[in-house]
Specification:
heterodimer; A: alpha+beta; two-stranded antiparallel ribbon; 7 helices; 18% strand; B: alpha/beta; six-stranded mixed β-sheet; 27 helices; globular
Chain lengths: 269, 877
């Protein structure tokens, strides 16, 4: 049974409890780039962004979750909206990272979640380029890559993910993906009836075979910093590969020809 | 209103979101667009400090609206359950008559006498002439029964509450609301419509507030007007209705029930007070008991409390030890305490779980006060700003003589105890692990401190030490600690404390089932009568009960009093005792049920009140809904069977408050103490009796005079990511990186006017100091049009200080010490100030010296603060 999460951004209150629970359960430290370290002094936070209430900035090896805050309109004009979205790895059905990984460190478990086996990862970073969502990140302390595991240890012991567990408004719901998709579809209809015309599911089967962590968004994906039509790197890779192969053949032929000429010359010498 | 629930109470907000899923509508009325507004169906931005004008407008709209006046439901509800028809003293003068003040204002205009705010009574019905021999406290109360109230059920009498209400709020028109609050008339009217439509037989509306309402010089009146609106709408005492106060900490409710407050002993029994007739126990009881409400039981609760304190030493002959208790002399709450400290009038301070160096208003003034202490004890998890005030930036530690003791505190998970949350719910928490090193629980500290005091005073012959010598202090259970495997064996037993709080019979030490078993003769002991019933028998700690359902969950924890989750639910039934509607069925009268009680002839009394969801009912079980009032009976029996508010002397919800508030019987819009706006409603600018301390280092911006130099409205508030003064969050990297720095929220219009770019360093300032932070320019902040001119507001979260990982200026440095006159809560939610580009000019201690040097205002002395003489006469009521 494929497990995943339905993230209903329409009820996200931006409390960031998911971010903290994620770090606590997965024993992730502070993001080093958020602090200035000076010998003999306590570390000093330097990550104020001025980007609404989001000071996390991006997903990283230490931030497997990021709550985005998007301000639209204005109170003065009477059309203020403040969108919030807790972003993380989507555990794609067609996962670019998994396909790109040359050492098979990235695998899919029986529950459908995609994890990086830390003891196998060699830190080549091919997966980073292969992820269309900029989820996966290099850890400079371990020399390997990290990302959300869908709380692999929890879900294989019958527990829900840490973020879903703490979410006070049930904006993050963990469960069987099929059931979650039914729940999400009903929620979209309810919101449309309330006048949220742009409400839609991001990550249904139309995207990369289906995102196992999928979202209900109240606006276009780009507004939340998500690609409208993310592509698997293999498509590009295939073209590149073919070009490379063709080039190699051309080069090889050229070389052979050259040798031949040389040989011919030799022969002729 | 007055609450940013999604940000400050995110876990409780879960239920608001569940209500929304079921089709409930959420309205957020707040100066800022916050994470709560983002979830609301409707957000109305009003100027900070204008809430009474807004809700006064709702009252005016409602009571002149034919749809309300002709509604059978609303008429029946207010007629029976509120004091709308009661007649008020003919000498009462309203703000309409006196241009913004009520009758009774003293000549120096600093305090009120409430003599003209009283009900009219029929003197002939009083039993005062018919005196009986006073054998006990109940006889004494009977001899003091007042006359029956006069009322006019047609509401036409000019002295009726309805007519007074109508006159008082006639100025609060939609047009005036718009002028004062800065919202549009359409927005205001839309809120009125939603409220009325959703407050009917089959529907209810609830108000939720937090410190956004309490932190004002009109804080109590703000909550009062919500009470008026809810009473008029028929929402009080009904499921899904009422007014929900959100408290600021875990168990801050508990710390007022069994208080850390100076003016209350326990269970809201008043502290002994030299200003009142409290010389003997009898005088105290006669002063503090009500003759015609549930508070007629005060004698039993008081005597049982004294018995719990002094045990065998408490006897009827020595007034149960009453005489040995200290009496208060005035307002000893934290604001005047720090003024007194600053004036050199305080010797030492125990500071437990609080960080006033950051959380205190005019915080540098408070830190300077700490410098005048001989000693200070701080108990906390980390070395807070308060513990480190002597080495703060800008001071020379050598110049400070205060001896500071820092004691590490245990966390809640490291000790047994209970939390009492905002819904009066007691929940036990278990010790999971021994605290590290020398860290100890507050219970441990308090028990050992008093135990050592008892040893120190054991041989004293001074009569004033009687209370320490005879205090019952028997909470240690080393055997239990050993059994549990704890390494700290001298940790007192939280169970033993809770047992005493619950109460027990003195003779055989058996826990009582509830407060109805308490006696006024010394045969029972009880540490807090409202909690009685939480631990009704050995092995039955209801605070640990964990049976939940999808609704009221009466099997989860214990809601004081007597596990009643909703109060005054008599009002959830109609006057005849039937549910107002099936969908809002809650407490109702079953005329056929056996009440389980017997009448005088021994026959069973048929008919009883039932709660459909197993909730406790705060109404006499067998009292018939049509029971007439008995003018010769003491207590609740004096009230009729239709009176839901058993704690009020008349059993009614108060639209007009004849007592209980010191600043007027009806909420009135006054401008905040510091406001760049002249009151558009009255000549009277501010709450005339607001508490203020004209002392060096605490200057105020005077209305009109300072408006040009300080034209902005400033609010301070909290964020989800940090906890209050930061003692539990600014040391934790995970939380620090979520909100690393102090920032100042401002509108794009104001930023443009001041040439400020998002993210750059700016300084907010008042006459009291400067606070530097990063600019957060956002369209969530509105520019207000108030009374025809543009008014800008800025907002500053106040979590930062000079210790911990995330350091920053103390926002409270620029807030003033000024307070609500009823409860002495400060006005951090709204004051005036200004904003400029760039960093602050100096550090706080240097700015404070400049401020003091420029201060030519009148000085008050330590004794002025002790006895509040500068506030005028305090009435002995």
């Amino acid at each position: 049974m494929t497990k995943g999460m339905f993230v209903d951004t329409s009820v996200c209150i931006g409390c960031k409890a998911c971010q903290v629970a994620c770090k606590q359960w997965n024993e992730l430290g502070e993001e080093p780039s958020h602090f200035e370290y000076e010998a003999g002094l306590p570390s000093k936070p330097i990550n104020f962004t001025g980007d609404s209430y989001n000071n996390t900035g991006s997903l990283s090896a230490y931030d497997w979750r990021e709550v985005k805050f998007i301000e639209q309109g204005s109170v003065l004009a009477g059309n203020m909206a403040w969108l919030m979205m807790s972003d993380s790895c989507k555990h794609c059905t067609h996962a670019g990272c998994l396909e790109a990984c040359p050492t098979h460190a990235i695998v899919r478990t029986d529950l459908g979640n995609v994890i990086v086996q830390q003891d196998v990862c060699n830190g080549c970073r091919d997966c980073i380029a292969a992820c269309p969502f900029d989820v996966i990140s290099f850890n400079h302390q371990t020399g390997k890559v990290n990302k959300c595991t869908l709380c692999n240890d929890r879900i294989h012991n019958g527990l829900e993910t840490a973020c879903a567990k703490v979410c006070p408004t049930d904006s993050i719901v963990y469960g069987d993906v099929d059931a979650l998709r039914t729940q999400a579809a009903a929620r979209v209809q309810a919101l449309k009836r309330q006048g949220f015309n742009k409400a839609h599911i991001y990550g249904d089967t139309d995207i990369l075979g289906g995102l196992n962590v999928f979202y209900l968004l109240l606006d276009e994906p780009e507004v939340y910093g998500q690609p409208r039509a993310p592509q698997l790197p293999e498509r590009n890779l295939m073209r590149n590969t073919l070009t490379s192969v063709a080039s190699a053949i051309m080069l090889g032929v050229g070389a052979l020809l050259a040798f031949r000429r040389r040989g011919g010359k030799k022969e002729s010498v | 209103m007055g609450s940013n629930m999604a940000e400050c109470h995110p876990v409780a907000f879960r239920w608001v979101m569940k209500g929304k899923e079921k089709g409930g509508k959420l309205i957020h009325i707040d100066p800022r667009f916050t994470r709560t507004s983002a979830m609301a169906d409707k957000h109305v931005a009003i100027r900070a400090g204008s809430d009474i004008a807004f809700l006064g407008g709702v009252v005016n709209w409602l009571i002149n609206n034919p749809r309300w006046l002709n509604s059978e439901f609303h008429h029946s509800y207010v007629q029976n359950y509120t004091n709308i028809a009661t007649l008020i003293d003919g000498d009462f003068k309203d703000t309409e008559d006196l241009d913004g003040v009520f009758s009774g204002l003293s000549e120096d205009a600093k305090s009120y006498s409430g003599k003209t705010w009283q009900y009219q009574r029929d003197a002939s019905s009083s039993t005062a002439q018919d005196q009986i021999e006073e054998k006990n406290y109940q006889d004494m109360l009977k001899n003091r029964l007042p006359g029956v109230l006069k009322s006019d059920p047609s509401w036409q009498d000019p002295n009726s509450v309805f007519q007074i209400l109508k006159r008082h709020y006639q100025r609060y028109t939609p047009e005036m609301v718009s002028r004062v609050c800065g919202c549009s008339e359409e927005q205001f009217l839309a809120v009125c419509e939603m409220l009325l439509q959703n407050s009917q037989r089959h529907k209810t509306s609830a108000f939720v507030y937090a410190v956004g309402w309490t932190q004002h010089t009109v804080g109590v009146q703000l909550i009062r007007i919500a009470g008026i609106v809810q009473s008029l709408l028929g929402n009080a005492g009904r499921p899904g209705g009422g007014i929900l106060a959100l408290r600021g900490h875990a168990s801050i409710q508990g710390s007022t029930d069994i208080p850390t407050l100076y003016h209350s002993w326990s269970g809201y029994l008043a502290a002994k007070d030299v200003r009142r007739s409290h010389d003997t126990l009898k005088e105290y009881i006669l002063n503090e008991s009500h003759t015609t409400s549930f508070w007629s039981n005060t004698p039993a609760y008081t005597v049982s409390l004294l018995k719990a304190w002094f045990g065998d030493a408490a006897t009827p002959e020595n007034d149960f030890g009453y005489g040995a208790l200290p009496a208060i002399t005035g307002d000893h709450s934290i604001l005047p305490m720090f003024v007194l400290m600053q004036l050199g009038g305080v010797k030492g301070m125990l500071c437990i779980g609080q960080n006033p160096a950051v959380g205190g208003q005019n915080a540098e003034f408070q830190r300077q006060g700490m410098e005048k202490l001989e000693w200070m004890v701080v108990r906390d998890y980390f070395e807070t700003e308060t513990a480190a005030f002597w080495k703060r930036p800008g001071v020379d530690p050598k110049s400070i003589q205060t001896e500071v003791f820092f004691l590490p505190a245990a966390h809640a998970a490291e000790c047994d105890g209970t939390f009492t949350n905002t819904s009066r719910l007691l929940q036990k928490h278990d010790k999971a692990v021994d605290p590290p090193d020398d860290a100890r629980s507050d219970l441990w500290f308090t028990w050992h401190l008093i135990n050592r005091m008892k040893q120190a005073y054991a041989n004293s012959t001074n009569p004033r030490d009687w209370a320490i010598q005879n205090l019952l202090w028997d909470y240690l259970d080393e055997g239990e600690n050993r059994k549990q495997g704890w390494s700290i064996l001298d940790e007192p037993s939280a169970d033993r404390v809770l047992r005493e709080i619950n109460g027990y019979t003195w003779a055989d030490k058996k826990q009582v089932p509830g407060f109805s078993a308490l006696k006024d003769d010394g045969s029972t002991a009880c540490g807090c009568w409202i909690y009685s019933g939480v631990f009704p028998a050995e092995g039955l700690n209801l605070a640990a009960a964990r049976i939940s359902d999808d609704y009221v969950s009466p099997g989860w924890g214990f809601a004081w009093p007597a596990n009643r989750h909703i109060l005054y639910t008599r009002a959830s039934a109609d006057p005849a005792g039937n549910p107002w509607s099936e969908s809002k069925k809650y407490t109702y009268f079953d005329a056929a049920a056996d009440s389980g009680t017997k009448d005088a002839e021994g026959k069973p009394v048929i008919g009883k009140w039932i709660n459909a969801f197993g909730d406790g009912i705060d109404f006499p079980t067998a009292k018939r809904p049509d029971a007439p009032a008995d003018p010769t009976a003491v207590g609740v029996a004096w009230q009729p069977g239709t009176a839901p508010a058993i704690l009020r002397q008349d059993g009614k919800f108060w639209l007009f408050a004849p007592s209980g508030t010191v600043d007027g019987p009806l909420p009135t819009h006054y401008e905040p103490w510091e406001s760049p706006v002249n009151n558009p409603l009255y000549k009277q600018q501010r709450n005339p009796v607001a508490k203020n301390w004209p002392v060096k280092g605490n200057r105020y911006h005077e209305p009109g005079v300072d408006s040009a130099a300080y034209p902005l409205i400033i609010s301070t508030y909290r964020l989800t990511e940090h906890y209050l003064a930061g003692g539990m969050s600014r040391w934790l990297p995970w939380l620090v990186e979520l909100m690393p720095e102090l920032f100042v929220e401002m509108s794009p219009q104001l930023a443009a006017e001041r040439g400020i770019v998002n993210g750059e360093v700016v300084t907010a300032y008042t006459v009291r100091g400067e606070v530097q932070g990063r600019a957060l320019v956002t369209s969530r902040m509105k520019v207000f049009q108030i009374d025809g001119r543009t008014v800008h507001g800025i907002g500053i979260p106040w979590h930062w200080g000079y210790m911990g990982l995330a350091k920053g200026d103390v926002a409270n440095d620029i807030v003033s010490l000024v307070a609500d006159p009823n409860v002495t809560i400060h006005e951090g939610k709204v004051f005036s100030g200004n904003l400029r580009k760039g960093p602050r000019s100096k550090l706080a201690p240097q700015l404070f010296q400049d401020h003091v040097a420029q201060d030519t205002s009148s000085e008050i002395t330590a004794d002025d603060v002790r006895f509040e003489s500068y506030l005028g006469d305090v009435e002995n009521s």
